[in-house]
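Narrative of activities, Objective 1.

The group set out to show that a structural description can be obtained from nothing but a protein's sequence at a throughput compatible with the screening campaign. Below is one input-output pair from the validation batch, recorded exactly as produced.
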Amino acid sequence: MESYILPNFPREFSSIHLCLFQNVTNSASLRTRLVQAATMEGAEGDVARDELDYGFVEASMVVSREHILTAIYQALQAASSQNLRTKTVHSEVLLALHPSNNIADAIKRFGISPSTSSLLLVKIGSPTGTHGTRETQPEIDAYQQSLVDRMSELVEGDMVPLQELPRTSDWKAIKKLYKLNEITLPGTSEAEDERILEANMLNTLATKVVA
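Output recorded for this entry:
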């Protein structure tokens, strides 16, 4: 798991945690649980939603660490300014990844599906320090370890370093969604072509926010 501290955001959005799983075998049941939790009422519903309080991202539609971090940063900006277009900051990440503001399609393209085999879990939050004070390092370490444990229990798959993310990318689907097939590439190397395509993707996301 990779963690980042963002002190420029409100406390409840001040830390983000990313965990990548491959060879996932329980995506269908996870999706069913998410759908059920969204409609459950009372204390039971609160518990169910708390257990699934993550961003479940289809990793094959993400090309790099910078790609997902850009979307998370945009979701945090929306949340901290109380300008969310979706129900939670985690679902806002899915919308931020999409080249348009179509929420339903964003969830379809970037959310977990029954066939998802590479899954990126995003957790936005912060450990709570004693009496609401700033967290101590032991508290931060304990919180991060608890996240790793809970994610491992939640997802049936292999936890791998985030550096493996580009290897799961479905460039054919990504280029179609972001309309990257129209871009002229130098063709000097596959890596260089993908770098250019990624730069165009990130520019599309930045332009969407401005618009």
